[in-house]
Amino acid sequence: MDTTAPPEIFDSLPYYDDDLTKYPHLQEMVEGELAREPSAPQTLHPRVPPLVEPFITPLLKAELERAANNKPFPALDTLRYTLPAPSSTPATDEEWKSALDNAHAQLQHQRIRQQNLALLQTYGSNAWRIQNYLLESTAKQTETSLEQLKELTVEVNRERKNSQDRVGKQLTALETRWTELISSVLQIEMANVALDAEINRLNKKEAELAEL
Known about the structure:
Blueprint: H1 19-22, H2 24-36, H3 58-68, H4 93-211
Pfam families: BCAS2
Subcellular location: Nucleus
Protein name: Breast carcinoma amplified sequence 2
């Protein structure tokens, strides 16, 4: 024996039904039912994948925290660009070698900076324009997709409203026809009752006449 209850089907025509407007007590009942509904869960479903953390280095993380806390930008460290001479007098060969290596490193660093600035001056503006063009193109495509989606949503809602208005009018006509048929049946039943009473009266009168 199958004890499984059939699924309940809830159907409505929200664009056509106006029972909540006609009968205010229904609105109160609906609000009461909504108040008894459990609140939405605060945690995500277990099947939802965890949030992916972006690739952030410790230095970048510290900089983001500094910007979030509105702290001033640290002063530029100029010590690394200085060329200190050996502190001892007379200096040893190792100290002079360390100072010379530092001077070579600073010189190479300045050369690399000069090359980077030259490359940036030559190709940086074009790369920036290309990047801006790509971003503008992506933004236009996104805006176009958004407008198409909005138009599609409006069209779907318009079709739903027209369909529900059409079906609602058919239902109203059928309900009116059903009411008329029920009224006709009741009138026929009342006429039958009246005829039965009249027949019973005539039969009774006929019997009385027959006795006489």
